[in-house]
Specification:
Length: 639
């Protein structure tokens, strides 16, 4: 089939000419030239497998790389022995198929051919999807870099599925996909699970590559994962291409957001929103300037994982709902859904709220986000919010409080109350934002007493004797849970002192003022600020992260606190609210490193939210999720 060789060579010549014109390398890359000392890398024999042709990018050695253009099309003259062998392989593929596997090295998701370059060239020319290969994996050095972590997760995924083509760039993605399939990354997957996933991915890839924005820096795999969070991937092989295309178009903003290194736009004060309408105040809203009135109020639904009767977290949000509804005097009508502690229950509550014509839906647990995200695409006109701090989705806004500001002041107060240089600190699971609370508390205590040590205890890893054990070691001042459970008579909350007779004296506690928070968010809907062009972007998720200045965080002190200490805390609080002082400004030390030098700026919002280190005066560690008691952890996440 010399004509086909001529056509293939024309494609190769065109690629070569275009590459040279652009100043790019026109030939196949060689693995030998890409790795400085390839002999030092560990080789693992994977075995015979079908590998995607579009992942074969070059040759193992430099010997044959100039015989092919960078697209694997031939460049050697048509009357050569090379051309004759290429044509014979083409004929053989047409007659009976190429049976012998090529030998290929896999390195960082890409394949380089050791033997069988012409076979690969023929199959690429024929637009085949895959080719049989004897695969050898070349293992790169293992580091803590996210790219390295993600690659080693890819290796685990490949071992249990045999799939090569699904490439994610972020750690944790393969585990997430495995959980979607009801599988893990340690045990081989059933054949039917693998085939379903392979067919779904290939179907998605065909439609997606035809519609993708070529300027965006993300893989088909990353886009596939986002799609699968919203629409079940096992329906892809039977869904129409038109439906898949429409769904991909609907999640384009999510894909763009995910592609950004800095995905989250953090709004720290309500003043960052600029006026988008002329409706100035509540009086004008009541007159109908916002489109809502007492006769036609704005409907807002609140979805809780627990119930106000037995969950302090839910109880606080419920008080906030009622306070906000009262503030707007009939202009806002609210409803609530309790005990939505599974994705199915949350989804049902969202559907019920949508059927009730709710314009805004607040969900109060990060664990609800999967259902909320799906609900946002099912009901794009409803404003969806989730109470979390680092779940960046364009379709769902998140909100959380800068509680670390209050915790800093609590640390100052606790250090003023202890003479033992030791404070006990009990907290729940290490979600985003909670580590900052611990560190701010520790920094506040150390600013009063540099010798002070914070003994950190985690709910879910400790039994209920933690207080007694610390007391026996001389600890008498404690930081307990921020919120009081309605059904818990214990006084172990806020900052308290354990007295000699075993009683507890409460000194102060931080306050989550959810009513104020909900008032500010609802007001932005009523006065037209919700869609402010200054802050709302297609490539960013939006997170409200208000603090003491906005009135969503506060502290309350009992009469057991000296008025001198009250004055000190008031002065420190003023500095925080005016922006002249930050707990995370100046020199910062973790348990094993210098985080910030004195001449460097304070930590950014993103650095505070995603903090994963403990201050140098904290005695304790951040537990792995596996160490947390699953029942306790899940219930607290749900709250």
């Amino acid at each position: 089939m010399r004509d086909d060789y001529q056509n293939a060579k024309k494609i190769g010549d065109k690629y070569k000419a275009s590459a040279l014109l652009k100043g790019k390398e026109p030939y196949l890359p060689s693995l030998e030239t890409e790795i400085e000392d390839i002999s030092t890398y560990k080789e693992i024999h994977v075995g015979i497998a079908e590998i995607p042709l579009d992942m074969i990018v070059g040759t193992r050695t430099t010997g044959r790389q100039n015989a092919f253009a960078g697209n694997f099309m031939p460049l050697i003259a048509e009357d050569s022995e090379f051309a004759m062998k290429w044509s014979n392989l083409y004929d053989a593929q047409l007659d009976e198929g190429l049976r012998d596997p090529v030998i290929a090295y896999e390195y960082k998701h890409r394949f380089y051919v050791q033997e069988g370059n012409k076979r690969v060239s023929v199959m690429k020319y024929m637009k085949a999807v895959s080719i049989l290969a004897d695969v050898i994996r070349l293992m790169p050095p293992r580091t803590k870099d996210p790219e390295s972590v993600a690659y080693y997760e890819y290796v685990d995924f490949n071992k249990v599925t045999g799939l090569f083509e699904i490439v994610f760039t972020r750690p944790g993605a393969y585990q997430e996909l495995a959980e979607m399939a009801g599988q893990n990354l340690t045990d081989p997957w059933p054949d039917e699970k693998v085939e379903t996933l392979r067919d779904a991915f290939r179907t998605f890839a065909k439609v997606y590559t035809a519609k993708a924005d070529r300027n965006m820096e993300y893989t088909v795999g990353d886009a596939f994962l986002i799609y699968s969070r919203i629409y079940p991937y096992d329906s892809l092989p039977v869904d129409s291409r038109d439906l898949i295309g429409r769904r991909i178009a609907s999640i384009r903003k999510e894909i763009r957001t995910d592609a950004e290194e800095d995905k989250l736009k953090v709004v720290e004060t309500p003043e960052e929103f600029k006026k988008a309408s002329v409706v100035p105040d509540l009086v004008s809203m009541l007159k109908g300037g916002s489109g809502y009135s007492r006769e036609k109020p704005l409907k807002a639904a609140f979805i809780y994982a627990g119930s106000p009767e037995n969950s302090s977290w839910t109880y606080g949000h419920e008080l906030g709902r009622l306070e906000m509804e009262e503030h707007f005097r009939g202009l806002v009508d609210t409803s609530r859904f309790d005990k939505c502690d599974t994705e199915e229950k949350t989804a049902a509550a969202i559907e019920a709220a949508a059927a009730d014509s709710s314009a805004v839906i607040f969900t109060t647990s990060p664990a609800m986000m999967p259902a909320v995200l799906k609900g946002a695409f099912a009901h794009p006109k409803i404003k969806m919010l989730n109470c979390s701090s680092n779940l960046p989705y364009n379709a769902v806004r998140t909100y959380y409080a800068r509680m670390y500001e209050a915790k800093f002041l609590m640390g100052v107060l606790a250090a003023l109350q202890t003479g033992s240089h030791r404070i006990g600190y009990m907290t729940d699971h290490p979600v985003y934002g909670n580590i900052a609370n611990i560190n701010a508390f520790a920094i506040g205590a150390a600013m009063i007493d540099p010798a002070c040590r914070i003994h950190l205890k985690w709910a879910g890893t400790e039994d209920d004797s933690w207080e007694q054990e610390l007391a026996e070691e001389g600890v008498s001042v404690f930081s307990g849970p921020d919120l009081i459970r309605p059904d818990d008579p214990s006084r172990r909350h806020g900052i308290y002192r354990l007295e000699a007779d075993g009683s507890r004296t409460v000194l102060a506690a931080p306050i989550w003022h959810w009513g104020r928070y909900y008032e500010l968010i609802i007001k932005s809907v009523l006065n037209g600020l919700w869609d402010s062009k200054d802050l709302v972007r297609d490539d960013k998720a939006l997170n409200y992260w208000y603090g003491m200045k906005s009135g969503v965080v506060d502290i309350v002190m009992t009469r057991n606190v000296s008025y001198y200490h009250v004055k000190l805390l008031a002065a420190l609080r003023k500095g925080i609210e005016e922006g002249t002082f930050s707990p995370f400004g100046g020199e910062l030390h973790s348990q094993n490193a210098v985080i910030r030098r004195a001449d460097q700026p304070p930590l950014s919002a993103h650095e505070i939210i995603t903090m994963n280190w403990l201050n140098d005066n904290v005695i304790g560690s951040i537990p792995d999720a596996a160490r947390l008691n699953s029942r306790e952890c899940n219930s607290r996440k749900a709250e």
